[in-house]
Amino acid sequence: MEDKTALTDEQIDAELATLDGWRRDGIFMKKDFIFANFKEINAFLPHLTATIVAQNHHPDFSFISGEKKVSVEVTTHSEGGLTQADINLARDLNAWNQ
């Protein structure tokens, strides 16, 4: 079950300081995952989709093949901003890179 606890600006800033590569853009958090090759992308995409399913939290994402990049943008639309669910998703997505 996703945790839709709304976060204050101070909480968001503190969490972002611990989330490598994530940045805030208004009511969204964004990160570009850059890969060396398509083999790495192929390994990451199942992690992305499994995390989405497991958390029942659905970010927008796009794949830019020419740049070998997967861009992820997350917010909690029902709350009109960032929540603990967004932080949890970002943290779990980052776990793949570490």
Please provide a written account of the structure.
The chain has helices spanning 9-16, 38-55, 84-97, and strands spanning 23-25, 28-34, 60-64, 69-74. By secondary structure, it is an alpha+beta fold. It has a four-stranded antiparallel sheet with strand order 1-2-4-3, covered by helices on one side. A hairpin with a 4-residue loop joins β3 (60-64) and β4 (69-74). α2 (38-55) packs antiparallel against α3 (84-97). The radius of gyration is 13 Å and the shape is globular.
* Helix coverage percent: 40-55%
Terminal CA distance reads 25 Å
Proportion of strand residues: 15-25%
For the secondary structure, the number of strands is 4
How large is the count of helical segments? 3
SSE sequence, one letter per element: HEEHEEH
Structural class: alpha+beta
Shape type? globular
Return residue spans where pLDDT drops below 50 for at least 5 consecutive residues. Answer: none
Neighbour order of strands in the largest sheet: 1-2-4-3
What number is the mean pLDDT? Answer: 94
What is the CA-based Rg, rounded? 13 Å
The largest pleated sheet is described as: 4 strands, antiparallel
Primary descriptors:
98 residues, alpha+beta, 4-stranded antiparallel beta sheet, globular
